[in-house]
Amino acid sequence: MSISSRTGAPTGPTGRSDRSALLTRRQLLGAGAAAGLGAIGAGTGAAAAAGITTTTSATARGLGPGGALLPPGSRPFPHLAAGTDTIPQLDHIVVLMMENHSFDDHLGMLGRGDGLTLGRGGVPVNYNPDPEGGVVTSFHMPTTCAPEDSGVSQSWDASHISWAGGTNQGFVKACGPDAMGYWTGEDLPYYYALARQFPIGDRYFASVMAQTYPNRRFLIAATALGNVSTDASGISVTEPPNGTIFDTLDAHGISWKDYYPDVPTADLFLPVAARNAGKGKIVHISQFFTDAAAGTLPSFSLVDPYTNYSEEDNDISIGEAYAASVINAVMAGPAWERTALIWIYDEHGGWYDHVPPAPAVRPDGVPPAIHVPPDQPGAYDHTGFRVPCAVVSAWSRPDYVSHHVYDHTSVLKLVETKWNLPALTYRDANAGNMLDFFDLTAARPPFAEPPTLPAPKNPFTGPLPAGSLDLSTAGFHPICLATDAGTVPPASALQPTPAPGADALMAAQQRRFAVAASAQGAGSTGSTGSTGSTTTTSTPDSGSGGSSTAVVVGAVVAGAVVVVGAVLAVVTRRRRRAAEAVGTDTGEPDGAAEGAGAVGGDPQTAGGDGSGDPTSGPG
């Protein structure tokens, strides 16, 4: 079948194919809107039949005594003052968060970490049931372009259907057969070399089974605050009850910048963007390369991707080239020996991954803004799917694959651990701190001399585009078109049954990695002494944390939008529309609320859905 001939995509409440409603950040720039997927039954349980444990009934344990949950406000070192630097080897933490890919679709063929399961001839045997009959096996994408009309989606509903009760057997049902595609080192030579040199995590998950905005909210606020989609509801006119990591850094005199080409992540909370407008903290991506070359990066940097020049639904070679330019700038900069760059993706983009999302601590008492039916049921009690993760630093641990469970709030926990900062929510308070990626006891940084990595397949050349709508430069250029993909999936991927022994091979691989994870021990759990990476020892804070009062911003936010920064006019119009909704219509579904009124007290008693413990409730 051709890339446009498969019409089995999920249908929304209106009954039409959801493919025409799929929302991307690129479409949002053009003021596109998305409709939710309709209610569709879960996929089959082939993974469970293979002996792979499902996780729908499990709950996450906290880092307090006996697995108790640590509260918001907890500090990694309660005996030290907030703001104390506990990792002096590092002066700069840089987070490069790319767009929309799973571990398996990008790194599944790396041969390092828990990737796709290989059978005869080195061909993956992973599969999903096909609603039209038979199975669809994992297959190599023919070009670096993903078909734009494939139906691959990371929406709340598509993700929960893909999850299929903890079996990950619903990807084809939710997203179509193209979701089973993957790329290799021939397609992504820079990424594969990077992931072979530096430590990677094969249990690093997105924070929620949903789209970009809720996951980026988790990255900066440790909560989605009810948001589940990338639309107007994701642009909040109120602040998180305990603020964002930017606010915490400000409160302790720690420098930060959000470098963006199109849409800064800081804009997800308009009061944060307005408060920092004109202060040199939310700046264009071109400033990143200037700061990196001069050794003047701030203590914490968030680097956002281009919307059109990312790996979202375009030529992924362009996204690799952009990421390479950022990573190379850090490795070539004078502050290399004092910097750690974390390369991650906001969510899986709808692409297949074989490892089910992990149980997670609910961040607060705000439930997802869904309506069941037609929406798929769920809560913030599981992570999203796995995404690529590597830690690029002079202090990175050589020859290491982390099997510890992390999500985006683990990045926050690393920042909080370095500067002994209070946690924002229950999620980051109980997250691992990623210190196992480092060897901070080495007499000399293991990567004091940064390795030379090969050029990306489609190297960036020319001046940096001002934004995704800037067509005046040729810095980013596609080397394929969606129509070049030909027949996707190939006929060889459509089979009446799984490959012989596929289930047994996949189950055996999961048992091997379970043993490897157990051998790594408890992992990074909240103090810099937990991994043996530093000489500092402590116990996680199990005392009271306390929460700051939520700041509810009124209609003045509408006027503040215009001073957020020099952004594309179309993005400014999007902000204005969201800000003008203050006091009238925020674009959220009925019953969705944010801010102080939505939190309703301690989630230990108020609950993740307003009625119980944040780790209990529907899966």
Explain the overall architecture.
This protein is an alpha/beta fold and 619 residues long. The chain has a domain at 88-102 and 183-468 and 513-606: 3-Layer(aba) Sandwich (Alkaline Phosphatase, subunit A). 23% of the residues lie in helices and 8% in strands. The strands form 4 sheets. A 6-stranded mixed β-sheet has the order 8-7-9-1-10-11, sandwiched between helices. It has a 3-stranded antiparallel β-sheet with strand order 2-3-13. Strand 7 (256-260), helix 9 and strand 8 form a beta-alpha-beta unit. The longest helix is centred in the last third of the chain and has 18 residues, at 502-519. It is globular, with a radius of gyration of 22 Å. The relative contact order is 0.21. Mean pLDDT is 79; it is low at 1-57, 525-602 and 604-619.
Summarize the structure.
By secondary structure, this protein is α/β, with parallel strands linked by helices. It has helices at 25-29, 46-49, 103-107, 156-163, 171-175, 189-197, 212-221, 245-251, 270-275, 286-294, 316-332, 408-419, 426-429, 502-519, 556-560, 569-579, 596-599, 603-606, and strands at 92-98, 127-129, 135-137, 139-140, 181-182, 200-201, 256-260, 282-284, 300-303, 339-345, 389-393, 401-402, 494-495.
